[in-house]
Amino acid sequence: MSSHPLITVAIAGPLRRAFTYATHDAIGPLTPGQRLLVPFGKGRKLGYYLGPSEPPPGNITVKQVIKPLDEVSFFSADLFQFCLWMADYYFANPADVLACALPSMLKSAVAVRYRWADQILTIPKQVESLCKPGKKISAATLQSIHQSGKTIFRKLVSEGLVEEIWDGDASDDSQRIGGYRMAEDAQLETLAAKGKQPPVPFYGEKSRSELRELGWSEHYLGKAIAQRLLLPIPAKENHPLDFIKGRPEVRSISLNAEQRSVVDTVTPALTAGFKPFLLHGITGSGKTIVYCHLAQAVIDLHKTALVLTPEIALSGATLAYLRGFFGDQVTVIHSAMTDRERLDSWRGIRRGKYRIVVGPRSAIFAPLPDLGLIIVDEEHDGSYKQDDPSPRFHGRDCAIMRAKQNNIPVLLGSASPSIESYYHARQGRYHLLELTQRPGEAVLPEIRIVDMRTEGVKGEAGFVSLPLKKEVEKRLALDQQVILFLNRRGYSPMLRCGDCGHIPLCPSCNIRLTYHKVGHRLTCHYCGFIRSNYDNCDQCFGTKILYMGAGTQKVEEMIPKLFVGATTIRLDSDSAGGRVSAHRILNAFAQREYNLLLGTQMVTKGLDMPNVSLVGVLSADSGSDLPDFRSTEKTFARLLQVAGRSGRAGIRGEVIFQTYAPESELITDASRQDFRSFYERELLSRQECSYPPFVRLTNIIFSSLEEASLETVALEFHARLKARLAQSGITAQLLGPHPCPLYLLRKSYRRHIIVKTNQQVAFVRMLTQWEAEESRFKLPAAIKVIVDIDPDDMM
């Protein structure tokens, strides 16, 4: 047994357990979350310091930590505790959660270096003789600083007297490096030792991390830079929001009485501790300007604010408002950023350069100092739930917990709140605020229901009704804009052989393949399988291929034949490859380069286009019949949101719902924008069937490449789970094991058990204890298990 202090270290991987290691004389005091390099198995791994450890039972040899990778932890005390809570509640490995909170380049076992700040006005006397402004700090100097006091280095970093040097930062202590390019006459063979392969040549500019991915070792990088075979390229100082133009007039917008009431109600709570608010504001009621005024109140208190949005690519209006209000004080942080962009934004947030952070669910980990308010826009949106990989967390629920741990208010906003959130507000757990009017002359649009059974156009344009066709032509003739919504991308949702009736299916998921005319390919939207050049039936080899139904690509192709004068741009995940691409599409439409925007549910979120006077929903029923208890709620929210894109200025808007079930209460409520009627009926259904908000759910999914043993293993697990529940005194209802609605996914067969309980925390604690006693619940190695806490998608 080691005589050195023992510590607990979390290591990423499938095992949800921490490991005990010994420290040694060269390791100084550690802080929670600090990255460590540790021996693991036959290799080395990155770990995270969790705290001191008790000696393991028995005569077990404890390995020693190799070295700390950083001199200080990148986690504040509150953010570290939040990550541990998330790991506990969502049944996740703490290392996986902690890794989520860091930029990509800090997820590899690369040590961080340090330098003195360029300007230092005051310096502690203990290290005054060691300080050399603007210069790197050597290992010997680091040791001398640590000998001056246990916490002095941490203090130097927190006060900005010492700065971290990251990959791509200055190699000459004066100019930050953005990347490298190869010299024109570079001979990389000179770098390789005898019998070794030289590094891979490349073209253009590559960052240091990109070069490592190409196989360049630090040894090769150092030699190539020293020999001028790699030439440094100075980094460009771009603001992360340079692609968004701020709206300068937002500060002059006067709040109406309802908006002022919301601001006046929430502002005193900024200094009164934790309190959750739910802002139910109809579409176009000005929730974003309310967010701006509340964020300003936070800044006036010298604190920071976090604004979560469902998808950053579709949050142009929100970003334009916030940037117009706060300029360069606001930044974004999300997974679609490059490594350098994300690191720069993350570093600026830590240093207090940015006071307001906007982002999707991953932004919940933003290292904001002095956090004063969290806002969750469109809190109902399902994209806040991460389904894969672990941690499978819900951004909205985590925002509430982070606010609670920081003892600050949290504001949830939506035109169609989730059933759970609105129930909590009605029960008094959340403070309900409402915006019932659109500001100025704008009013809610008129919504018309069209019965496609009698009004549909005959032939290949059967996706359009005669009333919609006439209204589109009328609006285009008036030089107004139109949005058409179809929640189905691709060209045709399925192909059928006209000779034998065969429908091509995905070999990995056993579901119908979607036909994309661009590239003439069949695609599975679940696993990504692609089959090109499908010209003959693969069963009878016939050539009579029928293209059934219509997706956005087919509708786009037909629009010039249907609507004279239409200039169309399409917005779906095929046409928008990233945040800038989506923004460019929306910006082009906003600038009236096009008069018709066609898209999937991407057009339902966050669009504020004052010239749009008509929205056509081509298939209002789409998605409401899925085998998921939330399917009607999600469909209602989509209809309410897309309808709200019309008539947001002085022009009276109109919306047309095309449906094959005009008598549906769902369609009727959505056409009346009647959230409360929908809520009351849906709540009664949830209560009768015992679904949230009356219980909490856990979806335990088993999958295997072999179908034969899957059912047996799932049944055995069910029996053992039932016994564990009885032993622990937890009341729960078990459904299953049943085949998942998507029974075959990515070549794996799937079964699941749904657990309903009102003792969720105790249930997860019981699962954790069980897994600690029986690694992976003693499931066979061929069986994969996923424990999804509070699932949003039951497929």
Summarize the entry for a quick read:
By secondary structure, the chain is an alpha/beta fold.
Characterise the protein shown here.
By secondary structure, the chain is of the alpha/beta class. It is 28% helix and 22% strand. It is built from 21 helices and 31 strands. The strands form eight sheets. It has a seven-stranded parallel beta sheet with strand order 12-13-11-14-15-10-16, with helices on both faces. Strands 17-27-26-18-25-24 form a six-stranded parallel beta sheet, sandwiched between helices. α10 (339-350) links the parallel β12 and β13 (356-359). α7 packs parallel to α8, α8 (287-300) runs parallel beside α9 and α17 runs parallel beside α18. The longest helix has 19 residues, at 710-728. The chain is globular and about 85 Å long. The two termini are 49 Å apart. 42% of the residues are buried.
